[in-house]
Amino acid sequence: MTREEALALDAQDPLSALREHFTLPPGVIYLDGNSLGALPKATPARIARAVEQEWGQGLIASWNNAGWIALPRTLGDRLAPWIGARPGEVLVADSTSVNLYKVLHAALQLQQGKRKLVVSERSNFPTDNYIAQSVVRAHGGELVLVDTPEDIPPLLDERCAVLMLTHVNYRSGRMHDMALLTRWAHQAGALAVWDLAHSAGAVPVDLLGAAADFAIGCGYKYLNGGPGAPAFVWMHPRHQGQVWQPLTGWLGHAAPFEFSAEYRPAAGIQQYQCGTPPVLAMTGLDTSLDVFDEAHKLGGMAALRRKSLALTDAFIAEIDARVPTANVATPRDASLRGSQVSISLPADVDGYAVMQALIARGVIGDFRAGEPALLRFGLTPLYTRFVDVVDAVGILVDVLAAESWRAPEFQKRSAVT
Amino acid sequence: MTREEALALDAQDPLSALREHFTLPPGVIYLDGNSLGALPKATPARIARAVEQEWGQGLIASWNNAGWIALPRTLGDRLAPWIGARPGEVLVADSTSVNLYKVLHAALQLQQGKRKLVVSERSNFPTDNYIAQSVVRAHGGELVLVDTPEDIPPLLDERCAVLMLTHVNYRSGRMHDMALLTRWAHQAGALAVWDLAHSAGAVPVDLLGAAADFAIGCGYKYLNGGPGAPAFVWMHPRHQGQVWQPLTGWLGHAAPFEFSAEYRPAAGIQQYQCGTPPVLAMTGLDTSLDVFDEAHKLGGMAALRRKSLALTDAFIAEIDARVPTANVATPRDASLRGSQVSISLPADVDGYAVMQALIARGVIGDFRAGEPALLRFGLTPLYTRFVDVVDAVGILVDVLAAESWRAPEFQKRSAVT
Description:
Strand order of the largest sheet of chain A: 4-10-9-8-7-5-6
Largest sheet of chain A: 7 strands, mixed
Strand content of chain A: 5-15%
Distance between the termini of chain A: 31 Å
Mean pLDDT of chain A: 97
Number of strands of chain A: 15
CATH class of the largest domain in chain A: Alpha Beta
Oligomer: homodimer
Structural class of chain A: alpha/beta
Low-confidence stretches of chain A: none
């Protein structure tokens, strides 16, 4: 694809106006929205209002008057249609890890100790497997990790309590068939817990359509809620009233402002709230969901997905054509692909240093060590352009050809990669 | 005390300059900093910088370049001296409820199943008792609640695993003797877990001096971190490496950016981190700790405590002199008093409506139902003046004399009280 062809695609892109809702630094091609979403233009003023007016002037009364106390539910209701859930089913609270802890305990409890295996992938994002290790320990169970998705079906048997998967793999960008795997899990009598960290806002998700049991996900990646924005949690309505989660904080109580001594869980998803909601962080997510309202007007998730696949197709084609030494680790089959492209480079090329050299040239992706080591490029349909794809790969070609990544400054490791 | 005498006390107050660090709405006497601290003047610009520069321009690189990844520890280090801990011992993370869950599990684990009773107060803030109910259930233990502090010592025996107390009671403002109760708990072989929600930033706390085992607390009350600001957690260094907490998220791992499959807890307090820190919320707390740096220069906690007691003494004296029908529920003994004054009114006076009438007149405290129903007035030495005490009680006298609280608009209940 020539730069001119890319610009022509951008000119025809029905979603191109959405990029105008984001602040992006000049000279930067930001391809790391799968790690930290970009800043919506409306967010600074909205957070400033929350700080100066709602907190500074409204003070304690803002829990009622500014709707603070309802934020976990109102944000959940706004998010629900993007993950195939209904209003009233989703709660925004805590972190992805904490929410996984809640739902995994709940899921194992539903199995009443009769089944004790949790099945997941070794390549799952580590926090999921760490949390699962803790929860299975509490239930006297075991975490079984598979090395490839093909190894999952044989483990879905009468010993399997929970199939716990991240819908889109954080390293490869490979996407599972949620409906199929959930069906297989259910046929085996297991429950399906889905982590939507790399799905929500990026790919179509239909939790109710898949009849999934529990889901959790992240607010600061494709949802653009800001660094460390609160996460979300969903439970299928069929489990309401059947289950108890262990983080029994006061705001998950049926009547928190009665201040009664005995815990009595709220009905439905509200029982997954624990402590006081982080209002300023939630305000960021509230504002970023406004951009999704705009996306809804322009065709919603179907349109986002079309553009996402066109972007990742283009990125893969550019890599194939211009970086023949690279191996594309992300599935070429669109039905198996999230909204990122990961590539590996030959063993004699230091991928970490290549990414640092790219960043120095304004192309921001990230690097993940492992087998193979990967360069990840997140392509978010809300603000990535086709010209960004062509330019980014062009700069990668330059960096590799000139071996500029060999400069000592690009070898230096940071605390966070 | 006459208004002139109060103004004279304010003029002599060595801490009076600290009030200038806060934004307070004109015409408001804010006596609810024990529920939501006021807005520091520097916070809006600092949060705007975090949003617009660190997030908007710095994007993902700010995890390293803006120090985001270290915030849980750097804020913990800043907070440490105010609670009698050392740098490296305190972590800022999650909510008070979630942190209590972590430390209570850890404490029961240290008892190795040999002791299973958790002793607390029925009048403890409900979330503490709710979380304890969940944790004792997981450990096959029991939560024993006492009705008065005098009932605690007899329960400190060979069956007691943990004495879990909130240092300053949220209703009465009564303060426990942390050192004495911790000593008694230890003499009985129990561990002491302290909730500092109404203590941190308000009263002297010496965790190491008391040899306490674990502590948690809140960032949005006397610490002024903003609505739903993250909480904190502390563990005595003697327990480092001895114990495991169940919320085993990736940032509590010894080497999170190795992305290894097996959980391996970080050394010390770092293992109490779970998910990704809420950067914007933490920035609020970071800024509010600057005000405490100023307070440190003016005499630190000793000076804050002197002023706090002078304020609460004055409030109690004004109530005694001018509202003889009210009963002061907060201890008159200064050594037993936090930084609030709670009063009850005769049974034929609707305390809730009185508080609404006070708020309509610009005096913001809050109301807590129960036996007795209480009107709470938080007096924070950082921004409350003596003239506020005199004026607030004067307005209470007016409201009671004119029975203006009987107006129908003041009977209406809000969701959050």
